[in-house]
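Sample intake — Hemoglobin-like protein
Collected from: Chitiniphilus eburneus
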Amino acid sequence: MNDLQEQTPYQMLGGEAVVRQLVDRFYDLMATDPRAAGIHAMHAADSTAIRQKFFEFLSGWLGGPQLFIQRHGHPRLRARHMPFPIGESERDQWLLCMFQAMAEIPMETALREHLEEAFTRTADFMRNT
């Protein structure tokens, strides 16, 4: 875990290009995996804007440039997700897509475990039903 203290997860992943790859693969999986149909239905047919916003958010969340805050202000994650019913099923669908997207990106085991824990905590925090 020492590497996690010396470098940000953003740097350890490989920066902008890899974060963008993670975001795109996440949304591609959400759109094609029938197990994620519930959360996919909550999104607009054109995912271009949400992909960009999620990339901007993840950039800062992972310790890279604070793009989301610069362009949109504080993320206010729960408030932004409140219009959507998010329970255990939706949380689990989201995590399924994110963990699969992460599995396709080479990274150290310690980083993967750190991110899985952080994504799980955050996804669980989004539950509102």
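Post-analysis note: The radius of gyration is 14 Å.
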